[in-house]
């Protein structure tokens, strides 16, 4: 087991003007489950493949433990791509299906047997070792496929969108299994996904990338409560955070006909006359006074206890992102109604309008 | 139900297939062969008018991606199966959405590796299939194609003058780049080695591998063959200025391996005493392209080599070395190749491709001549071959079988 270090690791594709991964700095702790997440083109898969040895590193270094693997061939890195090979061989026993990579690697029979048995114990496959894969259920077969990576006892597991081929229901079940298995094994894992929900539910920490640049690496909780910039604020969370440009007023921010008080030292970090204000849908409340952001309700999504309001501000373009607020499910406003919202003071996210960087605490 | 068919040249008969039924449950009347084995995704071979198609059920984004990748591979001139259509928007009778289907044309006269190994026509089958796979992998890598899941089951084999030519059948994980990194190539090889060893161990466990054959040793061959070919095709060579014949020599070596050199980089050192050459762009199909140009015949590389040799003998035997090559080729086609391949009775034509039959006839003539101690005319050879050899051969025009015998693990989980 080992740490993984990206040290200003950079990948520039031949002929490209900008790096696909730009000076990436991440330290993955021993045993940690790190998720790389970002939209398509963010460089997350490239970053994983640099670690696997599939992509050349044009600048910086990558370390596994103390070993500099930057220019090492993939097979010498002691990493395993999990779910790379789903194929189970019908004529071979479950034990042989799990251990055949060790046989190829020339390991002695006794050692293979021992490692297979250990993996089978972790995967609850002990009673099935002598059976043929046909006799197993779907879930057991999937565990055999994972067992193949486990018996190799790699220092790092790599997973590149392993759930993208599964339907929604199966994806949720499998992601729980992978996360719990990883915790039991304690093997350092780097996992790539484009799905921020998957990232937030699985990772010990999440690294958000955009256009090849690391935006933030943090625990899911911290990422949600304290996004470092406008991109992370808009990317993490479902439904998405409301982000709006608002004028700075004396002692606060001007929301319609109402001034939301904000500490002076925060306002002092604004460089123009406006800032970007971010408020999560659950951090809004309907104001009784009729003051605040006037929102015309377009859609009401009733979920029982809660309801989500999808609306627009007066003068907002139809193409703009809707304004989203969570309200009490028992008394939601009606479609077409105009409601005034005020943010709950303690969960404001304020960003510099020019740089997009967070300026509130 | 509104289904959406994206096809290259739409065959209206596609509309008549039971798209609202999960592929696994398609009625037998549509199937060209009963499903054998199990595959990662459900795959069925379906008769569509005169032809046979392979239908794979897979999520829509993956189906579209693979469809596009296969199209691009064929545009690049790579040996891959031909994609025909993606069918999406499928809904079952009870209203549940069904996965999309990717449709490819069945490759005529191709053999899945299990069929190749089960025939054991010659004892070095394993060697010949791996050599073919190594050539395929080198060709793909030269074109910037990362396969991602190289295996025998993702490959189909066509006979090629006693050897095999390999075709890519599964492009689910394939990516096309301007150029591959060393790591990508090494990874493909590493995966190939593991998969092939696993597949051979499975054949061994099922009693389909000759005793005494070591799966791992056979699988090692893919590495050696790949490295040899890759180095020959791409490595840099230096020699003294006086040895300029080595440039032609290198090109001839590549031609003999079946490759054309489209771009060769040549430079000298500062004082001009040493010349450095390195092939930059090489293209497979040296012989098959030449035969195509001369005769219009579209055959595999080794078959082309064999036919070109016969064409040369014909030229010598008819004393036409001075004539225009294309005219002689035309005469050879009309007087030798076509009459001979037409002699095969229609009921035996599904056994082997004409070019492979021609190759076997040349082999057979050599064998008969040796036994007789003198030359046997080709007409007598054909008579003997059609009477004694060909009837015993299996029909290979549509050898079907699910392309993999892997077991699905995308089934419902029992957590």
Short characterization:
Chain A is α+β, with helices and mostly antiparallel strands and 361 residues long. Chain A has helices spanning 44-52, 94-104, 109-122, 138-151, 168-185, 196-202, 220-225, 230-235, 264-267; strands spanning 4-11, 21-28, 33-37, 59-64, 67-68, 79-81, 156-160, 188-193, 205-210, 213-218, 242-249, 252-255, 258-261, 274-279, 284-286, 293-302, 306-312, 323-328, 338-343, 349-352.
Your description of this structure?
The complex is a heterodimer of chains A (361) and B (415). With 361 residues, chain A is α+β, with helices and mostly antiparallel strands. Chain A has helices at 44-52, 94-104, 109-122, 138-151, 168-185, 196-202, 220-225, 230-235, 264-267; strands at residues 4-11, 21-28, 33-37, 59-64, 67-68, 79-81, 156-160, 188-193, 205-210, 213-218, 242-249, 252-255, 258-261, 274-279, 284-286, 293-302, 306-312, 323-328, 338-343, 349-352. In chain A, helix 2 (94-104) crosses helix 3 (109-122). Chain A starts with a strand and ends in a 9-residue tail after the last strand. With 415 residues, chain B is of the alpha+beta class. Chain B folds into four domains: 4-105, Phosphorylase Kinase, domain 1 (2-Layer Sandwich); 110-234, Transferase(Phosphotransferase) domain 1 (Transferase(Phosphotransferase), domain 1, Orthogonal Bundle), CATH 1.10.510.10; 237-284, no CATH class; 287-392, no CATH class. Chain B is built from eleven helices and 13 strands. In chain B, strands 1-4-5-3-2 form a five-stranded antiparallel sheet, with helices on one face. Chain B has a three-stranded antiparallel sheet with strand order 6-8-9. In chain B, helix 7 (286-295) packs across helix 8 (301-317) and helix 8 packs across helix 10 (354-372). Mean pLDDT of chain B is 87; it is low at 402-415. The A-B interface holds A 13-15, 49, 52-56, 73-75, 84-92, 96, 100-101, 103-104, 133-134, 137-142, 144-145, 165-167, 170, 173-174, 176-177 and B 37-38, 40, 58-59, 62, 146, 149, 151, 153, 178-179, 181-184, 186-187, 190-191, 193-195, 197-199, 201-203, 205-206, 216, 219, 404-415.
